[in-house]
Amino acid sequence: MWMFVKRFILALFAVAVMIFGIIALNYMNTSIHPKTGEGQGLTQAGATISVLSWNLGYAGLGKDSDFIADGGQNFFPPSKAHVDANLEGIKNILDANRADIYMLQEVSEPDTLTLGVDVLAGVKSVMENYAWFYANDISTMLIPTKYGVHHGLGSFSRLISEPVHTLRLPLEPTRLNGLLKRQYHVQIRELTDGNNNEWAFVNIHLSAFDEGGNIRVQQFERLLEIADTYYKEGKHVVIGGDWNMKLVETDFPNTTDEKFLFWVKELPHESIREGWKLIVDESVATTRTNERSFVKGQNYTTIIDGFLVSPNVQAVENYTIDTNFEYTDHQATRAVFRAKP
Q: What is the mean pLDDT of the chain?
């Protein structure tokens, strides 16, 4: 009997040590776990380059979803069927609005928030021949898929380019659930077009719920430093993604209570270098609040997604794809750029 008790105690101790080890590993985890694919039949960029940027909301934040961090009631999507349907809609939009380069945010591998759906694989299936790069900004280790989290940024290109590389941005002082640090970074794809113009395309996703927006501003300032370095090297710079700050003043109809707008912050335009320009479609909102499922005219909407380009870049086309937030809480922005003569 004593031997059984002793073995049972040792087994409990081993399990406790293992659990503590997993918690410690995730607490200290700073890896972004990059993954890549080479693509096939890539071509050199021509005189114009099309870019689509979209926060996919891990295919879990379609029109029927609310989210607890925004003041809603739910942490999970309504069902796996909703995630599957959202992903199918996202794939259709990506396919119908082809671009040379895609800058995607909140892409997800199978995890708890997608209810096991592989959003990254779904996106890759639409862009089979594209070169791709994916890296986590939040990821758990040694935790089963059902309870883990694996979200990040994805960059896709059908153009010949240098391998994507990453640079880190300032981090939030707090941890998600007291455990995970979100690893904010930018993904940079460099290429040369047929006229020997050198380009740098920067995929971003800035902080959203930092108190007072202070980390967002720090990230923005660091981002401008990074971009200016490339510009001074003679490159044509295009930054695209989810800035999580209002890029322009908006007044779209809504009935949202002021208390759910705690995250809203204006972009500090005064920090933008001379000659740099925001490229935004001011007629269509790019994000909505998630304190409730989406109803047009009720949820607060504004513009926090778009592009910032260096003085040597011209936008020849720019629009937001209006889906009425059917598949995600953001709407895709697409633009076509060329080097200024």
A: 93
d(CA 104, CA 53): 6
Q: Is 189 exposed, middle or buried (0-12, 13-18, 19+ CB in 10 A)?
A: buried
> Domains of the chain, with CATH numbers?
31-339 (3.60.10.10)
Q: What's the whole-number mean pLDDT along residues 312-320?
A: 98
Range 71-76 contact pairs with CB under 8 angstroms and sequence separation of 24 or more: 71/259, 71/260, 71/289, 71/290, 71/291, 72/290, 72/291, 72/292, 75/113, 76/112, 76/113, 76/115
The count of residues in the chain is: 341
**β-bridge partners, 36:** 133
Query: Average pLDDT in the 214-227 region?
Result: 97
Task: Identify which of 34, 241, 222 has the alpha carbon closest to the alpha carbon of residue 136.
Answer: 34
Pick the residue with more confidence: 213 or 301? 301
Give the closest residue to 152 by CA, choosing from 263, 31, 41, 71: 31
At 297, the amino acid letter reads G
φ, ψ at 50 (rounded to 5°): -95, 140
- When pLDDT is cut at 50, 70 and 90, the band that residue 17 belongs to is low
The distance in angstroms from the start CA to the end CA of the chain is 87
Q: Is 126 helix (H, G, I), strand (E, B) or coil?
A: helix
Distance separating alpha carbons of residues 276 and 261, to the nearest angstrom? 29
Residue with tokens 């779209």: 252
Find the mean pLDDT for residues 320-330.
98
Output the pLDDT for position 209.
Answer: 87
Cβ–Cβ contacts within 10 Å for residue 40, how many?
A: 10
| pLDDT at residue number 195 | 95
What residues have CB less than 8 Å from 212, skipping those under 6 apart?
none
The pTM of this model reads 0.94
Q: Are 319 and 334 in contact (CB under 8 A)?
A: yes
Q: Are 284 and 330 in contact (CB under 8 A)?
A: no
